Automatic annotation (TrEMBL):
Protein name: Uncharacterized protein DUF1832
Natural source organism: Hasllibacter halocynthiae
Highest taxon, organism lineage: Bacteria
Entries under PANTHER family matching the protein: SLR6007 PROTEIN, UNCHARACTERIZED PROTEIN YJGR-RELATED
Domain Helicase HerA central: 189-382
InterPro entries found in the cross-reference section: HerA_central, P-loop_NTPase, T4SS_component
SUPFAM superfamilies: P-loop containing nucleoside triphosphate hydrolases
CDD domains in the record: TrwB_TraG_TraD_VirD4 (cd01127)
Pfam families: DUF87
Amino acid sequence: MSLSLVEVAGANFRTDEQSDTLNTAFMGRLGMRKRYLPARLAISRSLAIAAPPPLLGDELDPGKVIKGDTLFGTGTALSVWVALIAQRAGQPDLDVRGLIALVGAHWKRGLGHLDKDWEQSGQDVTKFIKRLVEVAELPMAGGSLPGVGGTVSGATFSSGQIEVPIGEIGEDATTKEKVLWNVNGKGGSPHSAIMGGSGSGKTVMAAAMLRAIREQASVPMLAFDFKGDLSDFSGTRGQTPLGEAFEAQVIEPPRMPIPLDVLRLTASDQYGIDEAALRFRESFSRLKGSRLGDRQRSAVHEAASRALKSEEPCELHHIRDRLLEVYQEHEMKEDGATASMEELCRFPLFKPMHSPAEFFQKSWIIKLPPNVPEDSRTIVVNLLLDALDQYLNSLVDAASSPDGARGLRIICMIDEAHQILSTKLPSLSRLIRMSRSKGGAIMLVSQSPDDFSGEDDDFLDQMGLVGAFSTNAKPGSAARVLGKGVNLTTLQTGQAYIRRRGDLAARKIKAW
């Protein structure tokens, strides 16, 4: 072969301009951040076809360039790519110019076939990946599907608008007409808040809407269950239990550790380490037992920074060990901070089996009933939400369909959310303010509008849907949420006031 890997690594590869536009489209469809990822997928798709691809004509406008060492990598990876292309071409005397021409042709043909695969899969990412696995004749059993560029978790799990009834019945209390919520429509918000006293039916409404979303899109769910009955919850009409509808795995820490590398760094430079240490300190400082003063806050940050820098994967017990070291070095007496760390490490809350990208493409219900120590419950929620926030914000914006609907990547549902709202966790605030563009949807189920009154950020202003059942909320709180003249104490069984973003006034509905 009359070429060298050094030449290939430095060569400029491109396809035609029209195909390059399709390459960009696949970045959005699959949540990819680099141009070379859909290019690699396209070339692989074309190599699966025995016939040689037609070479690009001179009349086609050229697309953007990707260097060989970026497109194919270096070392063994580069050698394998060149060998596969040369073998398929049947040209033992292939030179760099011939390789460039073949790569452009495979790239174009592969994108065309990927686009057909995408449409035939109904623009559903799971079906699309399954189709590619079938084309590649890979085994379907024995684990999760291989991902594009290492993972498919950055992809969206919906296409087009998702409209769901608001509750099991979801009809206007007066006119009996159906009342729907457009979850991901253009200009709206996919976040929701549902409030009501104990036994009012707020969880019935939430579960019905979640099932309806799942019926239209295979979006995964992360749910926090503070009562312990969410997985088997089937509503008032004996519907499919929520856990079964989402094919969710139920985890009950500390009896079962959560299989997530929850402290994984998104950037391993010093800035990334310091930022991760700061985020951990803010989560840890929300624990009631920690009581961090200035010296304790500095010590926790230093301990987390040391552990994150030296341990991979980093676990809570690594931070505990470094915290004890820091206390000894600074001649500090053990206090509430060290005691809280010891308590958190008494049982393993997390086990680093999955990366955030792998973890958040599956559905999980995290059971945190009252018998779990409060600090353990708080740190589990705080660290999981922090990991979700970092993961979503590491992705490109979720793709939008032609009708302007934003694709969904994950739904995060917090039942009995008043138990966590009081911690004023920054990551929850960031998720509500910023995750919409990334395909995140947050659902908060709480007891009363009063639960939101102490938040630094006005969460309810960020919601696409707010609903409230009968509750003894303060008149001012109810009016702030739903408008003047709304009296929640007069609602009958199964009734709720709801207000969607853009509605001029609240509406009374029959939810269940």
